[in-house]
Amino acid sequence: MASATKQSKVTAGLIEAALRGQLTEAQAVRLARENPEVLALALLAASKRIAELQGTPRHLHPSTPSGMVPVYTKPNRPKGRKKPGAKTGHPGHRREAPTRVDRRESHRLKRCSGCGGPLQRCQRSRTRTVEDIPENLVPVVTEHTIHRDYCPRCQQHVEPAVPDAMPNATLGHRLIVLTSWFHYGLGVTIDQVIEILQHHLQTRLTAGGLVDAWRRLAEVVDAWYRQIAEEAKASAHLHADETGWRVNGQTYWLWCFANDHNCYYMIDRNRGSPALLKFFSAEFDGVLITDFWAPYAAVTAADRQYCLVHLLRELEEVDERNQQQEWVAFATALRDLLRRAIALRKRKDFTPARFRRASAELNMALEDLANQEYVDGDTRRLAKRVLRHRDHLLTFLDYDHVAFENNFAERQIRPAVVLRKNSQSNRSEQGAAVQAVLMSIHRTLRLRGHDPITTITTALRTYLATGNLPPLPPPATANG
Question: pLDDT over 70 for what percent of the chain?
């Protein structure tokens, strides 16, 4: 017994020496003579250590976002792919010319720029328009004289409200809304916002004052936040997705519920059904478009569409490690059915009524494929998933407005991911609440075709003048 213990200690010492890079030739020969299982353990430990030192991820899922994949692991783009830009003969895309000219200048040479000789004057000329910003952007400081008068009926002094700023605030609406758009709309850090204001707009701010101003702004426009939630829950279709978040160092989750005209963010401690039921307080009477995350099943919806892109990526992942004949046949057949359905939906003449028979045939073929008996583990697992969700994989063929993937929600959640990377989420529950409100309003206004800065500034002036916040503006364009 003592001999076995001593031998195991010697073996462990050899493995530790290998991991430290201090293994001698004699020790390596001794390790090779040990039990093959011990040698395999040592090689696996060394491989793991090498991967950690190199920082190379050993398991990259096909659905891993591109930004999380190390650049040196990405394959080079093959030469010969089509050149960027529009095809030859297509009209170009240029920035629209300015609608006004504020200043005109004339330029003429006195002598030839090449030889320095005299010039013969001609009538030829051309115009060139240049847009720029002034060299010194100076903020406008306004002193408001507020007259206070006495009301005999109320028996108190009254004074008019100043619509240009919040009560007791020294910063105007446009400045506060602009900075909130920088931070919550574009993902600029608070320090960077302060630097932009100080060095380019000649306005001095502190981080604490800026955060408090955003908190007051969120309190005023909270009614819009609730309106976005109600309109999202009353919509014909809704995309949903979630991503990790941190609040004061604790793990939270940022949920996103979005469609063409609404984007509602919610930061919650729970990633499961309690968070979903907090948002979907009643039955959703539209089509809910999600990935295969199980808690979404807790939402009662009129119909569902599961993301086919996630399913196709799952097939690609299994293809990399499973070459069994049964799996290859199943994956090929499933991939073919899904691609046929997607191609049918992309037809220019597609309508659910016109291709109802073709949709029914695809659904039947999908169910027949999943109902077969399989031996391979991966094949059985994916077949069970297809069978479990068979009624909600080709839902997009029954509607004109439902997508076959959940890319829209992922695109709407991406700005929050950028902000999370730059600013490390939130330091408090209150900060998380402000984050959700202002991100939702900024993103929704952009989806509806409105300028967030002008729209919110105008609404704040109306609120201070009348005491009521106007309703959230409706979409300004057909596609949001």
Answer: 87
